[in-house]
Design goal:
It is a single chain. This protein is an alpha+beta fold. It has two domains: 3-45 and 211-248, no CATH class; 76-202. The protein has helices at 34-41, 47-70, 92-110, 175-183, 188-193, 218-225, and strands at 3-11, 14-25, 76-80, 115-122, 129-136, 143-149, 155-159, 167-171, 201-202, 210-214, 231-237, 242-248.
């Protein structure tokens, strides 16, 4: 069995390097510790362990969304809402059906090469759902200027093809910022409400990051690339007895 201690993700706009303080089995994303494995497989988990597993699941979902977002160059940040008089936006399965119907229609009738990454959010009323997303390759969709600008004076558009309610769309000029921003809608509350349901929606047109799993010395890396590091973060996973250092270069 082979192991790695470094994960390299390559994006169009840079690279993310992760160093693990313990070796990881190749093809496995869990640290080789019996206690660590049990925390995800034990059906009779304690409340504390359940909270830990929920936190890990939240982190994994955010990481997945961020990596997909970073691997693409996006054109639009959008919000899709529902007209309350015409549609029950509190029924999650129904709003997802409406979203998927819109996406299928867009693919087959308007823009077959569209890319999308869309996440649900519970409205501030704690009852109704809406969606936020990133779009690219949208030449067939109709965008109309709303007459308003956002706080940064960027024009806000509406998507005329969305018939279920209201929309906003703004042009994306920085994919890195947009990738970080889209993850903020994945909250602990949303994860609890969407347990055993899909937490984001995307399609096969969307690119995934190139991934390499390596054995590499972190000290050597810092010696060579210290001047290229734009962001770094360290995370400790107590249950695994592991520290993970992240670097953006």
């Amino acid at each position: 069995m082979s192991y790695y201690n470094t994960r390299l993700l390559t994006y169009p706009t840079g690279q993310q390097v992760s160093f693990y303080s313990k070796g990881i089995a190749s093809g496995n994303d869990v640290e080789l510790s019996d206690n660590f494995k049990k925390s995800y497989s034990n059906a009779g988990r304690s409340e504390k362990l359940e909270q830990h597993c929920s936190a890990v699941s939240l982190k994994r979902t955010k990481n997945s969304i961020y990596r997909i977002a970073r691997a693409n160059t996006w054109d639009w940040f959008i919000t899709l809402t529902f007209a309350r008089d015409d549609f029950d936006a509190s029924d999650y399965d129904k709003v997802v059906d409406k979203l998927c119907s819109f996406l299928r229609h867009s693919i087959y009738r308007k823009c077959p090469d569209i890319k999308y990454l869309i996440v649900p959010e519970l409205h501030s009323d704690k009852t109704n759902y809406h969606f936020h997303g990133l779009l690219a390759n949208t030449d067939g969709l109709r965008f109309s200027y709303s007459g308003h600008n956002d706080r940064n004076d960027n024009p806000i558009f509406n998507i005329l093809d969305w018939k279920a309610g209201f929309t906003t769309a703004t042009r994306i000029t920085d994919t890195v910022r947009a990738s970080s921003y889209i993850t903020k809608y994945i909250t602990k509350e949303n994860m609890q409400l969407l347990k055993n349901k899909k937490r984001y929606y995307t399609n096969h047109k969307v690119d995934r990051p190139e991934e390499d799993r390596l054995i590499f010395d972190e000290g050597d890396f810092l010696e060579v690339y210290s001047n290229d590091i734009e962001y770094c973060k360290s995370v400790t996973v107590k249950e695994a007895g592991m520290r993970i250092n992240y670097y953006e270069i």
